[in-house]
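Fold this sequence, please.
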Amino acid sequence: MDENTDKRDSIISRMAKLWKADEILSLKNIHRANLPSMLIFPLAIILLDLRFLDQEMSMFGLDSILLMTLAYSLAWLVSIFIKNISRALRIFCAVSAFALLIILFLPKSEIRLGIMLIYHFSVGICMACGFFAFCFSLNNSERFIDVLIVSLYYAFIDICWNIDTVRFFLEVPGIIFIMIIFVYLAFKANPELPLQKSVEKQSYSSYIVFAIYFIYFIIDQLNVYIDYEMAFTIDSFVGLGSILAVLTAIVLQLFLNRSTWHLWNLFMVFTILGLLIIIWSNESAAALGSVIFGAAGGMGYITVMYLLGCVGRREASIRFFKIACIISFLENSLVTLALDKIYALSDDNFETFAFGFILFCFLLSSLLVPALYNRLFAAEWSGDFHKLDMAEAAKTVEKYDRYENLGLTPREKEVATLILQGLTGRQISAELGISFDTVKFHTKNLYKKLGVGGRAELFSRFGIINKEKTNKE
């Protein structure tokens, strides 16, 4: 009895701490130099969404949409063998651009479907390369804007897809325009980083965020099947729900600096509410159900992708990237095929099965609050959320260098700024694209000029409280 009470108190106390957990994001941390790497991932997602080019054909007993999904999933599997991310991005970007030009001017045929499979495979490789940059080249604020761009795109499509003028623009000139920008940025981006190729095991944080990603994918796919079966959702209202998700994320993250844990819970709650309205209500409630449905999807996507990028950056390992690629392959191939089979065999009981599974996931995430608190939202790796704002740190270093005539070099200023943000030597190496030995050389010179003996004295020298340490305490 006492043991059960202790467990219940542990869950409640950690829920309270998660409720108060904060994250510091700022638009000041978006760097112009990072824009090519920052936009590759969302543009690849947009280019993959060629909904107006549906072949409505079959091959090998599989419909065209499923075939294109499998081609895209295969790209993720192949991506684990890529050695040079920048080169692969440019090669497959050129292949996808060439394939798109052929697709746009060919009539529906098996040849066109075959080229569409090549296109989806090529864009899938580009998306994997973009995901690499998303994890390892960007900071938290840039990742946050990335996922908002994707959510706003889907909101725009849902709201405007039935407007003839918008649809005409997207079908040919729009997609060509986006591809031109994509090719330009692919040749400007340089997502290669000197990552830690550590042979050590991934941290528990990685496995927890992968589990959350997997749960989200299944829930999202179940929602797609229910939407197709019930046909009660209204696209324009789903789009409004996506906009609501974006606005909620902006308020929580940028204005209130609250944890993404809030968005994850809203995703689960809104998903259940939306399904209750859509499945067991009538068509008169379709508008409300569609808004809640759209908001749930947007919140889930924003939360999962943002967390994946943040944990990936903290891990700074090729192993993390390869595991993410394998999971994406399994999700888009085996899991998709399995759900398609379950849907075909379930007759009229699929909605009940889907709702039961989603409710189970909600209860499971509630029971895992201690693990979420210790390993994800409040663990040591999440110090990146609580660290000093990058712009503020750089301004502090510049001010002290100017007023005290320290004579810091530009590189020493960069190293000092990143140390004040709480980054380790390895992470600074990845951030600046220099070797770990070079980081140690600049750090040694920095300490000598400042007259300090270590990080604690450096923080004190700049009059800054170590926020990461404070949060851990």
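Residues 286-315 form the longest helix (30 residues). The longest strand covers residues 58-59.
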